[in-house]
Design a protein that fits this description.
The structure is a homodimer of 537-residue chains.
Chain A lengths: L18 H16 L8 H5 L12 E3 L29 E14 L2 E8 L2 E8 L6 H8 L6 E10 L12 E12 L9 H4 L19 H6 L1 H4 L3 H23 L3 E2 L5 E2 L11 E4 L2 E5 L4 H9 L4 E9 L12 E10 L5 H21 L1 H10 L12 E4 H10 L12 H15 L3 E5 L22 E6 L2 E9 L3 H10 L8 H5 L8 E7 H8 L21
Parallel strand pairs in A: 1-6, 4-6, 7-11, 13-14
Antiparallel strand pairs in A: 2-3, 2-5, 3-4, 5-6, 8-10, 9-10, 11-12, 12-17, 14-15, 15-16, 16-17
Helix pairs in contact in A: 7-9, 7-10
Family (chains A, B): Belongs to the class-II aminoacyl-tRNA synthetase family. Type 2 subfamily.
InterPro entries (chains A, B): Aa-tRNA-synt_II (IPR004364), aa-tRNA-synth_II (IPR006195), aa-tRNA-synth_II/BPL/LPL (IPR045864), Asp-tRNA_synthase_2 (IPR004523), Asp/Asn-tRNA-synth_IIb (IPR002312), NA-bd_OB-fold (IPR012340), NA-bd_OB_tRNA (IPR004365)
EC number (chains A, B): 6.1.1.12
């Protein structure tokens, strides 16, 4: 038997049925009724019996909750909406998807059924085989309900602009509601999917927009927009390419603890945990652990995991919890061995996205238009003094050892783009004075260090350096920075028993995705973002 | 120039040098000396000048700290120890590795150089080209120091049992210390690598063992043992196979927040965080978020990340922070669609380890011998009542709806192994009474639920279920369990707007690795374990 046993659910027992159908269904129906697991979809449907016998009985209704009953054995094969094309014309197919929209028009009901980034039009028209009641039932289903539909694939006379499947539609044969949505939705997918247009667009004011907090408060619905479906698939792609490339280069994946006994970056901006009778902290970076893995002979390691920052920054680009893509690598003579690996990692991520996530990028751009991301292969590498000169030529006043302010960082991005036509570049040789104590000084310079940042569309997405691998020298540099040696004893101890020279870096996953796509808020690329004001859902 | 410019480091300026060498080196040396970055490896070496000119000058010493200087440009090509085989005989190669052991014997010094799981013997013998001073220098290098060695690959007359490379050794030509280890080691790799033998082994008492806490306190050294090198490579393999397989099956990787505003599993055993002016909790499971992703149309998702349990359990198998491999999947009619995916996931993990991590498994078994892991393909699936019967037949008294105690779980594992010859099996249809409120009841049974655990060597490594996807029914079940509806409002809300039937499960990574390898403590497979008494390193 198929799962259509639940068909009586729409009738509250009043519906007139063919004998054969009743015979098939009564046994299970009786059992289910006893359990009160039948539901009534829509009262108007059950009362609409004035036209006598419903020729579509057994072809539509609300399914009994799918509970994996032994008695429901179906060999029904479902087709993915994205695969329904003209080649399937005149075949009947089953789909399971969400009712995106439905619009009744006389004896017709036009529905759009959505499946992730794809959608198809479904047409129900009163006919010899489709009853008035069936069409009315279709038009009364709540949006966002999950439905099983059987329909005949039919070529459309003209392209359907509102669907991903533009050349075909389904002519309905059966429809079963699998899971009902509430009648009132806190936001509509249509509104949440509406393309962002320029300020000068005169239609802009007429369209309802969904604000960020409404989206995030109702993330379960918001995530269903085609753009969001694509964003998080692309984000998964970034992680996949990162891992595949590093694994191919001999890196070992490690897992580093998030609960630590001392603040990893000096004590500021750290979350405190009650740990049994004592306290612990949430790691702000896996750096110490990556370095310990290097000192522990793993040679090349990466880790992907949550990173925590107790910064009270309420900006478009700060989160209190984000995903760090971290790597650390021993090298032979020069930290550029590592910079080259990281540079080619990014080039490969950009190529991989461009080549394998074209459909996702297209879908996202339909809602959030952006210039395609440009990059050079091999990537552009500038030294810090060059950047300072470029900024000075553009009128910025800054000292040789000043850090880049956020506005200058962005200006530099524009200057680099104008000059080199790339949205990604590496800035090497940051002044030692503005980097942490464990950064290896450049032995050939009085001011520079062996450290680097990397930028996408003018914003930093990676910070890294050659780390000091000699415990004595580390103590010397810590003292120079007036760091309390006792507090970092465990860190220093990691280098007492021989450690190869090494360098690495940490990448903020969400920033990479936000900037690659040119989005305006990091919350758009964090599935369940955390900021100083948001801990839910 | 090559990096041997640091050679004068051994001499404190007293060493007699050839003019040409001095010429080459003086410029850089002077600069380096000024910076006081030269080190003296061993005073005995520098004082050992009674024999006149050292014919090996410039062939050994302590390298200046590798700081990525422009002046160090080397085209030296290093060979991996694992690749040094008889085919390379009579070639000179460079290796960088750790000095595992060195043993002076007259005019000879036998060294073993280690590189992760591999090791090779290096021989220094006083000769026409190798000075007495050079050999003495070799014998005085602290164990665990990192060294660059040039040597001629030479066939050995008989196999070298103590090295991974048994048929060849290196006859030394140059040796440079890259990073010195402290003289005193808190533990010796030889001790930490010693095979675990049965209690009846009479040698057992004579060998020094390293206890767990000493290992963990000095994890940077402990991680260097061949077994540990292999364990964490194999662990990375489990994650890789997990992801590759699920990605191939259309699963999307997601990242779920670790900081949440309410305890995910009811409030017990949860760590509290100070979150700005309020509080937050550390997630005990990503389950709610996986389910929200399903309600948000991602269809099939997985996530790998830290999971936190504030349980004061000081056992061999509990950690307060571990790595969860979680998945959740929408299905069409029956949760066995999901159980089958998880079952084949495990089969594929076991096959992948067996086929691609043979060298790691062999290395680990040399220290921790164990019976090879046995599994069936497809995996064995038993129902709970069958397990109860097996236990009763073995003399256990238990009710139909009693949970499995840990001893009974293990006994059952032995019974299943004896009967079916498998170390992995699925136990389906757990009694509803002992599962959480969100578990879908079995509609065909009064006591069973659509839930399952999976076991390796008699211990649970996965727990999962079909979850209730209907908000009304979820409320009904929550009330039945006397769960406060208000506290789980956000969870219930996730299912108000249509959700496909779905099931999933959570796997403890460390348990999988521990049990696959038959290890006796979960701390052996957590790189930096956390338990109620350990937050360091």
């Amino acid at each position: 038997m198929t799962s259509k046993t639940g068909a009586t659910g729409v009738s509250d027992g009043e519906q007139v049925k063919s004998k054969s159908q009743l015979k098939k269904e009564e046994k299970l129906a009786a059992k289910a009724m006893k359990k009160e697991q039948f539901k009534t979809m829509n009262k108007t449907n059950t009362n609409d019996q004035e036209s006598g016998e419903d020729i579509s009985v057994g072809k539509y209704g609300v399914l009994k909750m799918i509970q994996s009953s032994k008695s429901v054995v179906s060999d029904r094969v479902f087709v993915d909406v994205k695969n329904i094309m003209t080649i399937l014309a005149d075949n009947s197919v089953w789909i399971r998807g969400r009712l995106h929209t439905s619009r009744a028009k006389g004896k017709q009901c036009f529905m759009v059924v959505r499946q992730q980034q794809w959608s198809i039009q479904v047409l129900a028209v009163v006919s010899d085989t489709i009853s008035k009641q069936f069409v009315k039932f279709c038009s009364n289903i709540n949006k966002e309900s999950i439905v099983d539909i059987k329909g005949k694939v039919t070529r459309t006379p003209s392209k359907i602009g509102s669907c991903s499947q533009q050349d075909v539609e389904l002519h309905i044969e059966e429809l079963w509601v699998v899971s009902q949505s509430a009648n009132q939705l806190p936001l509509l997918i249509e509104d949440a999917s509406r393309p962002v247009k320029g300020d000068d667009d005169e239609d802009q004011g007429l369209n309802i927009k969904v604000n960020q907090d409404t989206r995030l408060d109702n993330r379960v619905i918001d995530l269903r927009t085609p753009a969001n479906q694509a964003i998080f698939r692309l984000e998964a792609g970034v992680c996949k390419i990162f891992r595949d490339l590093l694994t191919a280069k001999g890196f070992v994946e490690i897992h580093t603890p998030k609960m630590i006994n001392a603040a990893s970056e000096g004590g500021a901006n750290v979350f405190t945990i009650s740990y049994f009778k004592g306290s612990a902290y949430l790691a702000q970076s896996p750096q110490l652990y990556k370095q310990m893995a290097i000192a522990g002979d793993f040679d090349r390691v990466f880790t992907i995991g949550a990173v925590f920052r107790a910064e009270d920054s309420n900006t478009y680009r700060h989160l209190t919890e984000f995903v760090g893509l971290d790597l650390e690598m021993a090298f032979k003579y020069h930290y550029h061995e590592v910079v080259d690996v990281i540079g080619s990692l990014f080039t490969n991520i950009f190529k991989g996205l461009r080549d394998n996530y074209q459909s996702e990028i297209k879908t996202i751009c339909e809602q959030y238009p952006v210039e395609p991301f440009k990059f050079l292969d091999p990537p552009l590498k500038l030294e810090f003094p060059t950047a300072v000169n470029m900024l000075r030529e553009a009128g910025v006043e800054m000292g040789d050892e000043d850090d880049l302010s956020t506005p200058n960082e962005k200006l530099l991005g524009r200057l680099v783009k104008a000059k080199y036509d790339t949205d990604f570049y590496i800035l090497d040789k940051f002044p030692l004075a503005i980097r942490p104590f464990y950064t290896m000084p450049d032995p050939d310079s009085k001011v520079a260090s062996n450290s680097y940042d990397m930028f996408m569309r003018g914003e930093e997405i990676l910070s890294g350096a050659q780390r000091i691998h000699d415990s004595d020298y580390l103590i010397e540099r810590a003292k120079h920075h007036q760091v309390d040696i006792e507090k970092i004893a465990a860190y220093i101890d990691a280098f007492r028993y021989g450690c190869p020279p090494h360098a690495g870096g940490g990448i903020g996953l969400e920033r990479v995705v936000m900037l690659y796509l040119g989005l305006d808020n990091i919350r758009k690329v964090s599935m369940f973002p955390r900021d100083p004001k948001r801990l839910t859902p």
